[in-house]
Amino acid sequence: MTVITSGEELGKKIAEAIPGSVVSSDKTSVMLESKSLAQVAEFLKNTPGLDFNYLNFATAVDYIDYFELVYRVLSMEHNHSLILKTRLYDRENPAVPSLVAIWRSAYFQEREMFDMFGIKFEGHPDLRRLLTWEGFQGYPLRRDYL
Amino acid sequence: MEIVRPEVNTPQEADAVEGAYINSLIADSTSAIPDPDRWIDEAVHRNVFLTTTDTILAWGRQRSIFPMLFATACCGMEVISMSVSRFDLSRFGMDVVRFSPRQADVMIIAGTITWKMALATRMIYDQMAEPKWVVAMGACAISGGTFRESYSVTPGVNRIMPVDVYIPGCPPKPEAVIFGINRLHAKIIKGTMDDPMLSKP
Q1: Which chain A positions have a beta carbon within 8 Å of B23's beta carbon?
Q2: Fewer Cβ close by (within 10 Å): the C or N end of chain A?
Q3: CATH number belonging to domain A3-99
């Protein structure tokens, strides 16, 4: 079984390394500032003892007031996992740094999020629609679609 | 809608071409295509009788239909169970399931057809040799079913190609599919004179 890392402990570590990046943290997850997402991801991947080298999934939720991105990362070496969250309050042009350079498995997940929610991932190598076709109008999983 | 193959070099170009085709297909399919064999009923009502040669040809044709399985959703399970020993589709000469449209006579559309898939469906239909028939199986293929209001699903496969037989159900039982195959046989042999299921009221 994968051990779920305490988000409170890890949140302190992240806040020490990258000041101003953690909004809040609880038992299972760490809430981050969306701007510092890539920095935190790099820290989590490259710090000895943490070694989060695998992105399990990335998804988005529309809470009408904001979009919440959810990333679950885990470490193959230490067998522990963590959930990262971040909120985007801009509905017109939601943008967040891409994590493809750090975790390759974010490639298709970010394309799907772009397709379904219209979230722009800055630095994604090939950001285009994945499930719907080119020329499709709107973003179907948004709560205000239709 | 006509499909020509332009030269594409990158996935982005291919995506753009495919998107343009899908959009034109959606624009073209706003209403259902009527059944092309509707004249059979009218001809029978005008007392036009068939010649012996036609009858014999149709009888032969009826008993050696090669189906093309086009299973996109759960209806495919029912088609599989229909074609193996318990329900035994080979009783009707349909035991050779072809996966090439060029060798198939009837296309059984078993499942939801999305707009992205509709392009491939239409291409496969165009590749089938005449005479060809289409069976729409299940609520999704008939009308879109639960997903009729969805942004990505065709509201009935009869928007993109003419359909000969509709088999309702979600999914239809194998017996229902066999009944539909029987109706297709009746349609092929044009035996509509004493068939209340096919003649108009």
Answers
A1: 133, 135
A2: N
A3: 3.30.460.80
